[in-house]
């Protein structure tokens, strides 16, 4: 026997059923589309992680020269292990604020002038707040021609909350073009290089500053959980639609 509630409830009209069907179809299609998009995003993210891992651990190659600068993109070159030879321009060094596992401090961005006269900004590594330019305890950098290796990085855009202020020499992002303008540098590569860690410590047993090799390589990969969520929501909409259809059938065909 039907319950009193079922007996007193009348079937929905054709307009209400049509609207419910359209809403359910819209939600089902939307959730399936979002889930499928996350499938493609998951494949892209896994390919990106594999590509970066391969580049980071590969033997260093020559950094792109001026004739190749226009072809430097995130897909083609970012995180590539590269090698550079040149002379540091320490008088045009720039300190960029950062926070790392070692605490807050500065990235030491020093221009490296190559044999052809072009310049590449090199992030020589992290230094604490009380290092160079803060309390005058800056150790002299390498003199003469040097050869170094590191990871190619693309220029960072201006920050949203904390913006660079070149007139005050206050920097929060490694914006290559802005640093080049502020330091009067010409023929500057559109990328910078995070220098690899150099062996050796100070006599007191403390790390030598600046300390390289601190590039953070982390790509959040939550796409699998996202696609499961969207597909589950699609199944829930489908189940709800079947429930409504079954309920309407019982109301139209009472025993």
Structural descriptors:
2 domains; five-stranded mixed β-barrel; elongated; 5 helices; alpha+beta
Mean pLDDT over the full residue set = 85
**Number of E-state strands:** 7
Rounded to an integer in angstroms, the radius of gyration calculated over CA atoms is 29 Å
Name the helix and strand elements from N-terminus to C-terminus, one letter apiece: HHEHEEEEEHEH
Textual characterization of the structure:
The radius of gyration is 29 Å and the shape is elongated. The protein has five helices and seven strands; from the N terminus they run ααβαβββββαβα. Helix content is 35%, strand content 22%. It has two domains: 4-46 and 221-252; 80-195, no CATH class. It has helices at 4-8, 14-56, 74-77, 176-183, 223-252; strands at 61-62, 81-88, 94-100, 103-113, 119-128, 145-154, 188-195. It has 255 residues and is of the alpha+beta class. A five-stranded mixed β-barrel has the order 2-4-5-7-6.
How would you concisely characterize the structure shown here?
This protein is an alpha+beta fold and 255 residues long. It folds into two domains: 4-46 and 221-252; 80-195, no CATH class. It has helices spanning 4-8, 14-56, 74-77, 176-183, 223-252; strands at residues 61-62, 81-88, 94-100, 103-113, 119-128, 145-154, 188-195.
């Amino acid at each position: 026997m039907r319950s009193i509630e079922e007996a007193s409830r009348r079937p929905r009209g054709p307009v209400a059923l049509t609207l419910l069907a359209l809403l359910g179809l819209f939600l089902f299609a939307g959730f399936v589309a979002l889930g499928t998009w996350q499938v493609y995003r998951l494949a892209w993210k896994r390919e990106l992680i594999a590509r970066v891992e391969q580049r980071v651990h590969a033997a260093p190659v020559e950094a792109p020269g001026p004739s190749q600068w226009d072809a430097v993109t995130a897909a083609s070159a970012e995180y590539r292990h590269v090698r550079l030879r040149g002379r540091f321009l320490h008088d045009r060094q720039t300190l960029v604020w950062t926070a790392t596992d070692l605490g807050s401090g500065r990235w030491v961005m020093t221009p490296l002038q190559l044999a052809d006269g072009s310049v590449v900004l090199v992030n020589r590594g992290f230094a604490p707040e009380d290092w160079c330019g803060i309390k005058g305890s800056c150790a002299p950098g390498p003199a003469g021609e040097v050869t170094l290796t590191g990871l190619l990085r693309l220029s960072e855009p201006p920050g949203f909350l904390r913006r660079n202020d070149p007139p005050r020499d206050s920097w929060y992002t490694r914006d290559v073009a802005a640093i080049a303008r502020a330091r009067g540098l010409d023929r500057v590569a559109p990328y910078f290089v995070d220098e690899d860690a150099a062996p050796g410590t100070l006599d007191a047993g403390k790390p030598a500053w600046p300390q390289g090799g601190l590039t953070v390589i982390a790509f959040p990969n939550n796409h699998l959980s996202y696609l499961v969520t969207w597909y589950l929501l699609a199944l829930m909409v489908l189940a709800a639609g079947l429930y409504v259809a079954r309920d309407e059938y019982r109301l139209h065909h009472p025993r």
